[in-house]
């Protein structure tokens, strides 16, 4: 990739538009609670994200409430609400962001021939009229309006230019040309932006934005190509989560710009040392694990096992590392915490890890820490992060684990005795199973009857050692709803029960929200 700049050393500011809470949450099973969304939004604001797309207000009362509360709490970031090109959508989005210090309505409409024929069922002229009316409506509500041409990369360039010109004339201040289906290649995407900006007479009155999906694994490459074509806003998500194969990953875009400043004369306002923390928070909030070889924030991103690589690293880290672990907030594991550590030391450790808790949350996590320290010789930073994330995820659960005992061995059947608390009432059940995990899940099913199907059961160790906490991921599907949840404990079976119960809590909460909306 090559690029020149007219002024030596000059760097263009690239705005970071994070859509983890909207597009990211549309990833099947990635639904977050309000508290989880607020925690993610607070960290995004702290790390310097310019625009936070907080949700799709018309989609549900829960989405509206989340966008409105994030708007009230935001300190620096612009808070955006998504809206289709429908008057009711736009009005709802405007209401959701009205308390933000800086609010944005992000409205979109399809422009490609295939979408117009099969989804919109409108003519090109009709869609232009829709753009003019709905963008003008949004501009009457807020000064900051973004318009997106859904499926822009499969739209004819002449018609795309016509739509962009209409949107800017109606009051759009940001124009997003997304690769909605992850179809484009970098050269095509760059050329599209260059052509539109050259041909649209009022293009200088708007900031152009990229939004790339990763269906062909080209989301980040296309994003950077869009910047070459003149875009100055990047739409992305933490860990690249999102529909289908996901979106361009924020951490990859930010570090690519920072690391390759020699060929990309851009800069962002992101505090990169918070990237690892953001990755972990979103991973736990959505219950989507980060693949080990994920760029920037994966467990193996800075690991070197090859003898040749290790030899080079010992002599000079720059032989095989193009950025430092510290630059993305990855610190070496600490062993300073143990069963003799007090409240002051524990609170200090939380501060070092960038974790902020209320007094009630701190007390609960501290008690869990002391219980864990009695069972483990060393409590690692990752253990503490797992305790905090579990606390945030289960704070409002109706169903809670009280105790579990399992009889297992080479001669079956295995048997689990499970005690849980449901809405303050304690109930117990015993069940057999084809293995200890099956026995535990059968006991849960007997206590909490449900029709959900187990789609995923996954175990990994939080840290090294035989006394490491096990972190279990469970995904349940009930009809069209799919949720993923995690549980952590030194006992793998206890972690399994916690994860399964947490998933049931999420399904229950989703059912209650749907029921409330129906009423």
From TrEMBL:
Swiss-Prot/TrEMBL keywords: Amino-acid biosynthesis, Branched-chain amino acid biosynthesis, Cytoplasm, Leucine biosynthesis, Manganese, Metal-binding, Transferase
All residue ranges annotated as the Pyruvate carboxyltransferase domain in the record: 14-276
InterPro entries per UniProt: 2-IPM_HCS-like (IPR050073), 2-isopropylmalate_synth_dimer (IPR013709), AIPM/Hcit_synth_CS (IPR002034), Aldolase_TIM (IPR013785), LeuA/HCS_post-cat (IPR054691), LeuA_allosteric_dom_sf (IPR036230), LeuA_bact_synth (IPR005671), PYR_CT (IPR000891)
Protein name, as recorded: 2-isopropylmalate synthase
Region (Regulatory domain): 400-519
Pathway noted in the entry: Amino-acid biosynthesis; L-leucine biosynthesis; L-leucine from 3-methyl-2-oxobutanoate: step 1/4
Protein purpose: Catalyzes the condensation of the acetyl group of acetyl-CoA with 3-methyl-2-oxobutanoate (2-ketoisovalerate) to form 3-carboxy-3-hydroxy-4-methylpentanoate (2-isopropylmalate).
Cofactor: Mn(2+)
Subunit comment: Homodimer.
Residues annotated for Mn(2+) binding in this entry: 23, 211, 213, 247
GO (cellular component) term, any one: cytosol
Catalytic activity: 3-methyl-2-oxobutanoate + acetyl-CoA + H2O = (2S)-2-isopropylmalate + CoA + H(+)
Cross-referenced Pfam families: HCS_D2, HMGL-like, LeuA_dimer
Entry's Gene Ontology molecular function annotations: 2-isopropylmalate synthase activity; acetyl-CoA C-acetyltransferase activity; manganese ion binding
HAMAP family: LeuA_type1
Biological processes annotated in GO: L-leucine biosynthetic process
Family to which the UniProt record says this protein belongs: Belongs to the alpha-IPM synthase/homocitrate synthase family. LeuA type 1 subfamily.
Gene3D superfamilies reported for this sequence: 1.10.238.260, 3.30.160.270, Aldolase class I
SUPFAM superfamilies: 2-isopropylmalate synthase LeuA, allosteric (dimerisation) domain (SSF110921), Aldolase (SSF51569)
PANTHER family: 2-ISOPROPYLMALATE SYNTHASE 1, CHLOROPLASTIC-RELATED (PTHR10277:SF9), HOMOCITRATE SYNTHASE-RELATED (PTHR10277)
EC number(s) stated in the UniProt entry for this protein: 2.3.3.13
């Amino acid at each position: 990739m090559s690029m020149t700049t007219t002024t030596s050393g000059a760097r263009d500011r690239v705005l970071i538009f994070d859509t983890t809470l909207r597009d990211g949450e549309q990833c099947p099973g990635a639904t977050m609670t309000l508290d989880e969304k607020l925690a993610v939004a607070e960290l995004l604001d702290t790390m310097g994200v310019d625009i936070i797309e907080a949700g799709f207000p018309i989609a549900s009362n829960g989405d509206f409430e989340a966008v409105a509360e994030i708007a009230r709490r935001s300190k620096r970031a612009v808070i955006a609400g998504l809206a289709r090109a429908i008057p009711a959508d736009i009005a709802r989005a405007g209401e959701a962001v009205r308390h933000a210090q800086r609010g944005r309505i992000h409205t979109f409409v399809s422009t490609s021939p295939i979408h117009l024929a099969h989804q919109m069922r409108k003519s090109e002229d009709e869609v232009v009229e829709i753009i003019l009316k709905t963008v003008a409506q949004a501009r009457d509500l807020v000064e900051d309006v973004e318009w997106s041409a859904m499926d822009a990369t499969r739209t004819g360039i002449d018609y795309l230019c016509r739509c962009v010109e209409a949107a800017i004339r109606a009051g759009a201040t940001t124009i997003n040309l997304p690769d909605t289906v992850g179809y484009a290649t970098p050269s095509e995407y760059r050329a599209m932006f260059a052509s539109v900006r050259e041909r649209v007479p009022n293009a200088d009155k708007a900031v152009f934005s990229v939004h790339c999906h990763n269906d062909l694994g080209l989301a980040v490459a296309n994003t950077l190509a869009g910047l070459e074509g003149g875009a100055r806003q990047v739409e992305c998500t933490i860990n690249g989560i999102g529909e289908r194969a996901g979106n361009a990953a924020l951490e990859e875009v930010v570090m690519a710009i920072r690391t390759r400043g020699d060929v990309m004369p851009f800069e962002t306002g992101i505090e990169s040392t918070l990237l690892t923390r953001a990755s972990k928070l979103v991973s736990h909030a959505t219950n989507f694990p980060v693949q080990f070889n994920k760029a920037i924030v994966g467990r193996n991103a800075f690991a070197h096992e090859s003898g040749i690589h290790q030899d080079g690293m010992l002599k000079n880290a720059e032989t095989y590392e193009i950025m430092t672990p510290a630059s993305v907030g990855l610190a070496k594991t600490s062993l300073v915490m143990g069963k003799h550590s007090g409240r002051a030391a524990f609170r200090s450790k939380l501060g070092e890890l960038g974790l902020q808790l209320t007094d009630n949350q701190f007390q609960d996590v501290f008690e869990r820490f002391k219980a864990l320290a009695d069972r483990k010789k060393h409590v690692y930073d990752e253990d503490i992060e797992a305790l905090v994330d579990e606390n945030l995820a289960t704070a409002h659960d109706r169903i809670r684990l009280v105790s579990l005992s399992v009889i297992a061995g080479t001669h079956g059947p295995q048997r689990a005795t499970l005690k849980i608390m449901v809405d303050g009432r304690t109930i117990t059940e015993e069940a057999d199973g084809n293995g200890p995990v099956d026995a535990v899940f059968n006991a849960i099913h007997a206590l909490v009857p449900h029709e959900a199907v187990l789609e995923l059961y996954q175990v990994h160790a939080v840290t090294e050692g035989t006394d490491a906490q096990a972190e279990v991921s469970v995904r349940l599907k009930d009809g069209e709803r799919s949720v993923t949840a995690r549980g952590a404990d030194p006992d793998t079976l206890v972690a399994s029960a916690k994860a399964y119960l947490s998933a049931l809590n999420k399904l229950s909460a989703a059912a209650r929200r749907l029921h409330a909306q129906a009423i």
